[in-house]
Amino acid sequence: MKNTIFYLFFLTVASIAGYSSAAQHLPSDNEIIVAYYGRPGTASLGVLGQYSIDELMEKVKAKADEYTQITGNKNITPAFDIIYGLASSAPGRDKEYILPLSHDKLMKYINAAKSNGFAVIIDLQLGKMTPVEAVKPVLQYLKYDNVHIAIDPEFEVNDLNVRPGKVIGHISGDEVNQVQAAMTDYMKKNNITENKTLVVHMFTSHMVADKKLVKNYDNIDLIMNLDGHGSPKLKIDTYNGLYTADVSAKVAGGFKLFFREDKPSMMTPKQVLGMESVDNAQIKEAPKYINYQ
Predict the structure, then answer these.
(1) Which of 25-29, 224-228, 257-261, 279-283 has the lowest mean pLDDT?
(2) pLDDT, tens digit, for every residue of 65-97?
(3) pTM (predicted TM-score)
(4) Which residues contact 19 (CB under 8 A, 6 or more apart)?
(5) Which fold has domain 2-16+24-292?
(6) CB–CB of 176/209 below 8 Å?
(7) The pairing of beta strand 76-87 with beta strand 119-127
(8) SS3 168
(9) What average pLDDT does the segment 99-125 reach?
C-alpha cells in the first residue's frame, strides 16, 4: 500500500505543523538511531527477516558505521526494528487480527542486540487492538535498557467490520498519549530512569489525528517516522515540507528507505543527512531515526 500513496505525505504538512510548542521531548542533537526493519523469519516483510542474527548484526553495524564515518558522530546507535505484532487477514484465536512474535524469538534479538550495543524497536501493528492494548504485552521488555517501542497505525481496524489491509488505519493524539502514559507508569514502577523512544509510523495525514493533543512525557523521546516509496527528489521535497526548522524543534523526524522499492535508486547516508543534494533537492533538517526495509 505504501508504494502507491507516497504522494499523500504532502497532505500531512498542515497537520504536523499543528503540534503545540511544548508537545515533544526530543532526542539530543547528535543522537541518531539507524535501524533495519522487518519480521524475523519472514523475508517478504523487510530486510531484518532476510538474514540470520549474526549476518544482520554485521550489516546494520556497517550501515550505522557509514553514518559515523561521514559525520564523526559517535552517538549513532545501530538497531533492530522488529515487527512484534503482525497484522493478519484472519482474526485468530483472540479475534484481534494480530500474530504476536514469540517471547523466545524476540529475546534472541534483544540479547544479541544488548551484547553488541544495538537498540531494539518493538514494532506493533494494531489490527483490532487500540494502541494501549497493543503495547501492554510488550511493556515488560522495557526493563532491558536497549529496548524501545513503535506503533504502526496502517493496519488498525478497531471498530471496523473489515480485516487489516482493506483501509488505512489511524490513531489519535490522545491514543499516542495513552501509550506514553502506559510506558511512563511501567518505567516508574520498575525504576527505569533512562529515556525510552516511542516511534509512531505515519504516511498519510489521517494516520495520526488530533496531533495538537499530543503531550510531553518525561523520559520518552517521541519520533514521527514518515515512510513511503518514491524517488529521492519526491522524498526530500516531502520531508522538507513536513520538517521545517520550526517543526523540527517540536517533533523529532524519522526517514525510511527501501532497498528494493526506492526508484531509481536509494538515497545515500550523506543525502539522508542533508550533506549532499540529489536531483537538485537537499534535506534541510536531519532525521533522528533512519530505518531501512
Answers:
(1) 25-29
(2) 999 999 998 899 999 999 999 998 888 888 898
(3) 0.89
(4) 211, 212, 214, 247, 250, 251
(5) TIM Barrel (3.20.20)
(6) no
(7) parallel
(8) coil
(9) 96
Quick one: which H or E segment has residue 148?
Answer: strand 147-156
| 36: its cell numbers | 533495519
CA 269 to chain centre: 18
Lowest mean pLDDT among 16-25, 130-139, 171-180: 16-25
Q: Confirm if 231 and 36 have CB atoms less than 8 A apart.
A: no
| Sign for the pseudo-dihedral over CA of 267, 273, 279, 281 | positive
Cα(276)–Cα(287) distance, integer angstroms: 14
| Residue 105, number of CB atoms within 10 A of its CB | 13
C-alpha 279, offset from chain centre = 26
The SS3 of residue 177 is: helix
Residue-range domain boundaries for the chain: 2-16+24-292
Amino acid at 145: D
Instruction: Reply yes or no on whether the pLDDT at 154 is more than 70.
Output: yes
CA gap 79, 92 in Å, rounded:
30
Per the document, the length of the chain is 293
Q: Do residues 66 and 32 touch, judged by C-beta distance below 8 A?
A: no
| Grid coordinates given for 223 | 519520533
